[in-house]
Amino acid sequence: MIKFYYSLGPNPMKVALFLEETGLPYEAIPVESGKGDQFEPEFLALNPNAKVPVIVDGDVRVFDSNAILLYLAEKTGQFLPDDSPKARGELLSWLMFIASGIGPYSGQAVHFRHHAPKGIDYAVERYLFEARRHYGILDARLADKPFLLGAKYTIVDMAAWGWARAVPFILGDDAWNTLPHLKRWFDDVNARPAAARAEALKNKHAFKAGLDEESRRHLFRHVKSA
Ligand SMILES: N[C@@H](CCC(=O)N[C@@H](CS)C(=O)NCC(=O)O)C(=O)O
Question: Which residue ranges form the domains of the chain, and what is each CATH number?
Answer without folding.
Answer: 2-78+198-219 (3.40.30.10), 85-191 (1.20.1050.10)
